[in-house]
Amino acid sequence: MTRIILKTVLTLLFAATAIYIFRYETERYESQSVVSLKDLSRKQAMDSIGSIITGPSGDSQGSRLLELYIKSHEMYDYLEYKFHLSEYYTSETIDELHRLYKDSKLKHFDANKENFLIKYNEDLSILYDEPTSTLAINFAHADLNTSKVILQAIIDRSADVVNQFEKENAKVALKFIEKQSNENKAIYIASIKEMLKYQNKHLTIDPNIDVQTQSTIIANLESELMQKEVEYNSKSKFFNKNTYEMRILKDTMINIEKNIIKVKHKMTGKSTEKRELNENVFDFELIKSDMEFNKEIYRQALINQEELKIEVSQNAKNLLTISTPIVSEYYTYPAKYQDTLTVLLIIFFFYGIVTTILTILQDHKD
User: Torsions phi, psi of 69, nearest 5?
Assistant: First the structure.
């Protein structure tokens, strides 16, 4: 008797479920589109080359972020403003079991913002294909034309928001780099002033030039000394060394040697009149290297600043539509035959479990 009642109840339950699925459950039409997010900036082009070795590219990360945004409250609020989705999810267009109700006692059916978002995401489907870096976006609605219009609105809004995100990030980075540029400029100017102060103090443009000048002077003096020595040795064979001409030539040679020694002392630091020239070169090179280093930092900051200005002013990211939204000729949901078969299998399993328990209890009683 118990089994007959159980069969009757389950048969009625199956019949009621099948009738609901085939006659009352809302038929929804799904519109489909495939999009691809591409970053056309030069920086991303370099990152894409590096990603071959290091890992996923910025396009992949951007697509993932875009997927999260499409499923977010912000996107729903935008679609609510344009298409009044809350009215749709609470209307009689939706069947009783999938509809939301105002002031419902059941949390699952209450028409609140969280449940609206849940319903929206149930109608939305996003599949990311990693090899091609594409997003397949599907949206289902009770009206086949509305599903296409809403899906197109999702794509258009996403294209605008993608660049908005990039521009906001670029503005924050630009503000920081502008501050850095000003600081680097002040440091660079200070290093220039330090070099000018050194040059004015030592009355020199570049000690290296002074060294080169001194070397040239020494070379000329040594060449002249060599000529005088040759001349003196030649004449000493025919003239007396005590003659006036020979003494003049000898004095000239001595003066040239003294000048050579004097110049060499300036270069090697043995002069008491002036600080050693090689030490001046060392100090100057330190100041010059600091200035060149600060100049390069300032130059790089200016380059980064200009690149960020370009990012703020242009749309670097582009959401390319691979296939435009299409209208489905037949409803996609519910899958009536599959759902009915699933319910039937569940009922069979449930019936089998219950009858097994009843058999065990009966045998135990006996």
Answer: -65, -40
